[in-house]
Amino acid sequence: MHRKSGGIGHAYQFRSADSAMHHLPAAGKLTLWFFLSIGAIISRDPWALGVLLLLNGATYYLSRLKPIDFFQDIRFFLIQMAIVVGLYMIRQGVDGFFIGMRISIQILLFFLPGAIFLRTTPSSQLMRGLRRILPFSIAFAILTSFRFVPYFAREFHEIALIQRLRGARVALRQCFNPFNWQDIFSCIMIPLIIRAIKTANESALSAEARGFGGQVPRRVENNHLVQ
Q1: Of the four, 110, 176, 200, 201, which is 20 to 30 A from 149 by CA?
Q2: DSSP character for 12?
Q3: Per-residue pLDDT tens digits for 109-141
Q4: How far is CA 73 from the centre of its chain?
């Protein structure tokens, strides 16, 4: 049985709870993720997108996640939605609003099942599921990639907070104004890319030091190293 974790946390961060989704095996959650994301790609009609949105909402409810968790997971997509809709309206006028909204909702629905997966799957459960079908090194790489998502969400939040204290126009309500997009790119995206490159380099060096990617001694049951 899982304990409920307190506090607000960050986007895509695992939240412990005693729910049906938390008890579902990792393979089952990956299957659900796959079909919901594929549905977002092939759906075009408003009613189909509405059904998928309800299914994702029901999954959040079954996971016993809080409304603040849902908002944290989608707030980046709200900014993306404003940008996409704005660009389509500039190009196609009023008709571009509906096209931009459809594409934006499809993008949101494509990534939302992954957010639910990260919210409800601890690293140990994910690793056990991946080890059954993949070699250890590949499973470890996939697990690390998944766990970088909430890490970079925290980095994004911290960078945005620091830049707002410096006077940059990067608050959520300011991101909908096209005149502030230059600040978003120069004050948030560039520092985030630099941190991502640095983190990837440090992770690669750490993995190499632990023997990934080359011939290294094998660990045996008695914890001695042999060639």
Answers
A1: 176
A2: T
A3: 998 988 888 888 887 777 777 777 667 666 666
A4: 8
Containing structural domain, residue 165? 122-212
Same structural domain, 140 and 77: no
**More confidently predicted of 37 and 189:** 37
108 and 1 in a common domain: yes
- Rounded to a whole number, what is the distance in angstroms from the first to the last CA of the chain? 42
Total domains in the fold of the chain: 2
pLDDT band at 210 (very low <50, low <70, confident <90, very high): low
Which token pair is 50?
């509405």
219: in domain: no
80 and 179 within one domain: no
Can you tell me whether residue 8 is helix, strand or coil?
Answer: coil
DSSP output for 38-76: HHHHH--SHHHHHHHHHHHHHHHHHTT--HHHHHHHHHH
State the DSSP H helix or E strand holding residue 31, giving kind and residue range, or none if neither. helix 26-42
